[in-house]
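Weekly modeling sync, notes
Attendees: AB, CL, MP (scribe)

Item 1: holo prediction request
CL wants a bound-state model with flavin-adenine dinucleotide before deciding which constructs to order. AB pointed out that an apo prediction alone won't tell us much about the pocket. Agreed to run with the ligand included and paste results into these notes for async review.

Input as submitted:
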Amino acid sequence: MEAIGIWPHIADQAQPVKRIEITDSGLDAGIRPVLLAWDNDLHEIEGTSTAAHIVPLPRLNAALETAAASERSIAIVRPAAARSFSVGEFSADIELEGGDTIAAPLAVAADGRNSILRQASGIKTVGWPYEQIGIATTIEHELDHGGIAVQHFLPAGPFAILPLPGRKSCVTWTESAAEGHRIMLLDDNAFLEELDLRFGGKLGRLKLAGSRKAWPLSVHLARAYIANRLALVGDAAHGVHPIAGQGLNLAFRDVAAMTEVIADATRTGLDIGSSAVLERYERWRRFDSMLAAGAFDALNAFFSQENRLLRSAREVGLQLVDRFPALKRTFITEAAGLTGELPKLLKGELP
Ligand SMILES: Cc1cc2nc3c(=O)[nH]c(=O)nc-3n(C[C@H](O)[C@H](O)[C@H](O)COP(=O)(O)OP(=O)(O)OC[C@H]3O[C@@H](n4cnc5c(N)ncnc54)[C@H](O)[C@@H]3O)c2cc1C
């Protein structure tokens, strides 16, 4: 965000996550003891500051839109819904609702889970639904959060409280599908009572500060990330469980790698839509997102079970990790997206 000049436009709304706390308890537990906690600081590792920020999406979108609009080499076509996709010898052609066509040497599909471009190019996906839904909302609380992000592992799935600027937090709540649908139908007061039951009570009285939204949760991976003059990025390529809040970060990694591959190809005079160029992108990103999807799937299966034996095992595991600073550091760098072969943009450099 710094490298592309976005950061100054979101910094005042970006809440640093100073500390992360993890608990694992039953739904009706009176208190939720912290089993694992770490200060989310990269000074020791990277010489930079906080490893994570929570940014409200409308602010991020607005900053990105302003930056794109002020860049002379970007043409924005809006409204524009892609209807189909075909490939000629030298161009990728996207047909829009309404009949217009956009042609370019390369199309990058960033059109989400149900990507029309992916489907039109015949790329299949592998994946499965979870018997869970994700509920997200914003709440206001009586006490300061102190920049602490909390993940309560509850029997139905992870319940994350992510600090926003001021006395506000974003809640990302995984619930079993049936119970989640029931909760979403409740009125605001009853919804808040359900939320309060899971919240852990540390931030005083709670009030809803935004609408609530729910999504069915699933995992999917595209069988290929590229086709003739087409590359998939973000959820068009992979959808992961929100347990670690990494979906958008994986998408940023894709975009950064794609940008670097295109920049290098342009510099050396190669056709940016050629398979030699696109294969480099696919090799770079496919394995990493496959590993991430597998790891989040396994974490969700391990933590979303109400089994006493498993809970004891998890408790011992979390407390063990809590005692090993080196292991904690591994988690911080992993969550900050600083492992593996980093594209330049993720190191704060222009490609
Ligand atoms: C409950 C939940 C919680 C989450 N929490 C986090 C979190 O804390 N942190 C995190 O990093 N990630 C999180 N994620 C994941 C994150 O939301 C996604 O990974 C991310 O939004 C993917 O971005 P994307 O741009 O690839 O796809 P999307 O955000 O789905 O965007 C796709 C875009 O394409 C447009 N589009 C679709 N079809 C067409 C078409 N035919 N023509 C033109 N445009 C089209 C859509 O309008 C949309 O604007 C969460 C997801 C869920 C479900």
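Recorded for review: The CA atoms of residues 4 and 63 lie 11 Å apart.
Action items: CL to compare against the apo run; MP to circulate these notes.
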